[in-house]
Amino acid sequence: MPLIVKDFTWEQTDKVVFITVPLKGVKANKVDIFSSEEYLKVSYPPYLFECLLYAPVEDGDSVAQVGNGAVVFKLLKKEGDKWPQLQSDLAEDKSSMKAKREEAFAKAEEKAKERDRRKAEEKRANEKYVLNEIMKAEEEERSRIEKTKESERQQATQELEAWKEEQRLAAEKEKERLMEERRKEEAAEREKRKEQERIQRRQTRGKKASIFEENAEGAPKREVGKISVSFTHREFPTPERESVRPKEEEWLKKQAEARRIVELEDENLSEEEKNPMWLRDKGNEFFKAGNLEAAINAYSHALRLNHTLHSCLSNRAACHLKMRNFFKCIEDCSKALELLVPKVQQNADSRLKCHVRRGTALCQLEMYVEGLQDYEAALKLDPNNEQLRTDSEKIRHIIQTETVS
Q1: Among residues 377, 314, 387, 316, which one has the least CA distance to residue 350?
Q2: Which contacts (CB < 8 Å, 24+ apart) does range 26-30 have?
Q3: Does residue 295 contact residue 286 with C-beta atoms inside 8 Å?
């Protein structure tokens, strides 16, 4: 049976009611406080304080403070009149008190449910807002990536069109050059024929007309012609034989290479700068340092000294790939693969790099089918390379997607 607290005190103004309930030595953490518009309850066993207020108050704006051995209520009145007493007359009636208590508890429960419902709605609204923001950010990221891809695609297309135009102009220039040479040859041939006719007329001038002249008994003059025989130029004085042709071609290649190296001789170059292997190593150092243009110059000079250095072609292709010179990268990789024969295990790693670099450049130009062929060739050389397998699957997926669309 709880002990009813009766030694509480209260004060009031026109708008506020203050109620002080002593805790009688009970710790503040063991006090249970309940308040509503008309009912107050303070429970701290074995003591109990209950109050059925004379008039309703603003429950949302009222406060209760626990401290200094007491609970102090600050209640804001709904109506600004002074109360003749603190408790309602119904507080003496147990049944009315019980009904008011249950009513207060029911209202408090409804408020708690309403508060939980509002919190849940706010939480859902916040989650929806966050989800919308995430979706918006993802959409912006997708849009940015798509714009970047479109920009790269347009740039690659422009480079391809520029290369095609360059090839077309070169073909036209070559055609014009050949036509000009042909016109010069025809003009020279005509001049040669005219000169021969003049010589012939001088030789026959003053002679008796023959059957080859028109004034010889009115017979038509027979046309004078000349058959020109040209022989294939040959470096060797002996007749050409198929059995010795490979040796002759090899000797001619060596002589051409020697003449080319002599043409590249420069007094200002040091001995190291005339060594293609030293230039290759220097290019590798420039590449590692990120100086791609210097690396390309070093590799190019080494190839002028020795055009069979496939490693210089492959490394220069890597530089072109980093600088987005995709067509030059493809050209260097193709030349390097032509030099990497026969296809043996010793040059497998070099062939793999060339295939991967050429395949990457082709994919950058959106030539995915050709790029996939290079990646598959690289996979045959290194079947256990998971990165190559993953890249091949991505390229195959792009090709299938474009085919479906």
Answers
A1: 314
A2: 28/66, 28/67
A3: yes
The string of pLDDT tens digits covering residues 202-252 is: 776 655 444 444 444 455 566 667 787 776 767 666 776 777 778 777 767
Backbone angles phi, psi at 43, to 5 degrees: -115, 120
Across 44-53, b (16+ Cβ under 10 Å) vs e yields: beebebbbbb
What is the Cα–Cα distance from 212 to 219, expressed in whole angstroms? 8
pLDDT in tens, 259-271: 665 555 555 667 7
Give the position of tokens 């990789």.
333
Structural domains of the chain sorted by starting position, each given as residue range(s) with its CATH number in brackets: 3-92 (2.60.40.790), 273-404 (1.25.40.10)
φ and ψ of 299, to 5 deg: -65, -40
Query: What is the distance of C-alpha 210 from the center of its chain?
Result: 89
- How much is the pTM? 0.40
Bridging pattern class, strands 32-35 and 57-67: unpaired
CB of 335 closer than 8 Å to CB of 313: yes
d(CA 24, CA 241): 130
State how far the Cα of 50 lies from the Cα of 28, in Å rounded to an integer. Answer: 18
β-pairing, 3-4 vs 47-52, is parallel
Q: Are 44 and 70 in contact (CB under 8 A)?
A: no
- What's the CA gap between 346 and 113, in Å, rounded? 79
Widest CA span in the chain: 171
Q: Which residues pair with 3 in a beta bridge?
A: 47
Torsions phi, psi for 211 (to 5 deg): -70, -10
